[in-house]
Backbone:
């Protein structure tokens, strides 16, 4: 039996941004739902962080999720198994109060897991592991120790894996705690990574600048063969454009309508031509445009490769690099984790 696994959908992201929801919807309408229908898939496993804010849900975001996602799955006869993630648990030390349980009770096809639970799907026993916190840590690892399931699916924070492209988490639980399972699938980290046994499947779409160029989508899993493969989302929202005296007359800006654009200037010999290039982007209907420019030029070129690399870095990479350069006895991995959380919360205010 083939099932679909999806995770970290973050409905209501960026303060219920219409731009982001329109972008999400292209994926669901053109990729996700058509694939389920074409291949007769009737079971979806959602591995957490279905909604974005653990403190509350915008009513219009909830209406969007129901109208465009849950109502569609219900009409298709699809059963949904939903695991509580850290973004859907109201309190940090317990999963008892969570968004998916409170908001989705009207759907008979949706089952919510707020504590470790064994379920058999397509003949395969699976241990669902929701977000591990202070209250459930002991009982969760006791359940892991005693289970006979060979496969686990959860919302886990494990060290040694990348939460986003270019950074490896050194804080969290050890992967060895899950060594009894032949297959472990997890949400929580938004980029794909694996060690051959533990697989972080990544979220369906770009949400931040450090997601640029990173493959996203959902996963198909065969409960009989234990084979799995990704279905990629071809749609992008964030674009980096490298300007190097690029002729505005022949530059095609049509694909950037309703997109978030960062123009990184590598060479600018004529300011007026550059302004016309930027004007052409604005005329195409971009949603937002930022220019990253270094004025330390040598005959029109950036002074060094180091300057060029700095200009193209995303905010989190710059912050993490500065943390690494600081001489301190403090745990830098914990600092990076806190900075990452603060940065992502700040993005919600934009």
Residues:
């Amino acid at each position: 039996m083939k099932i679909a696994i999806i995770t970290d959908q973050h409905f209501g992201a960026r303060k219920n941004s219409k731009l982001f929801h329109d972008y999400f919807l292209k994926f669901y309408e053109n990729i996700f739902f058509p694939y389920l229908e074409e291949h007769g898939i009737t079971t979806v496993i959602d591995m957490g962080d279905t909604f974005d804010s653990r403190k509350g849900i915008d009513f219009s975001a909830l209406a969007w999720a129901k109208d465009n996602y849950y109502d569609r799955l219900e009409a298709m006869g699809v059963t949904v198994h939903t695991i509580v993630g850290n973004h859907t648990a109201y309190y940090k030390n317990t999963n008892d109060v969570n968004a998916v349980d409170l908001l989705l009770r009207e759907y008979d096809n949706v089952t919510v897991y707020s504590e470790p639970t064994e379920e058999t799907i397509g003949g395969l026993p699976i241990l669902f592991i929701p977000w591990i916190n202070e209250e459930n840590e002991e009982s969760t690892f006791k359940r892991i120790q005693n289970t006979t399931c060979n496969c686990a699916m959860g919302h886990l924070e494990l060290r040694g894996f990348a939460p986003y492209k270019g950074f490896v988490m050194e804080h969290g639980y050890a992967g060895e705690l899950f060594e009894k399972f032949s297959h472990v699938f997890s949400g929580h980290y938004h980029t794909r990574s694996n060690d051959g046994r533990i697989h972080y499947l990544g979220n369906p779409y770009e949400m931040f600048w450090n997601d640029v160029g990173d493959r996203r989508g959902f996963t198909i899993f065969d409960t009989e063969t234990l084979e799995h493969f990704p279905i990629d989302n071809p749609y992008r929202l964030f674009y980096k454009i490298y300007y190097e005296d690029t002729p505005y007359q022949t530059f095609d800006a049509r694909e950037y309508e309703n997109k978030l654009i960062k123009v990184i200037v590598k060479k600018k010999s004529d300011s007026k031509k550059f302004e016309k290039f930027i004007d052409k982007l604005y005329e195409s209907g971009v949603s937002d445009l930022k220019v990253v420019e270094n004025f330390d030029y040598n005959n029109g070129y950036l002074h060094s490769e180091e300057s060029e690399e700095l200009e193209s870095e995303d905010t989190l990479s710059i912050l993490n690099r500065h943390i690494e350069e600081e001489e301190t006895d403090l745990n830098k991995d914990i600092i990076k984790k806190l900075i990452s959380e603060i940065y992502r919360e700040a993005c919600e205010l934009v």
In short: The two ends are 43 Å apart (CA to CA). Confidence is low (pLDDT under 50) at residues 296-312. Residues 150 and 292 are 49 Å apart (CA to CA).
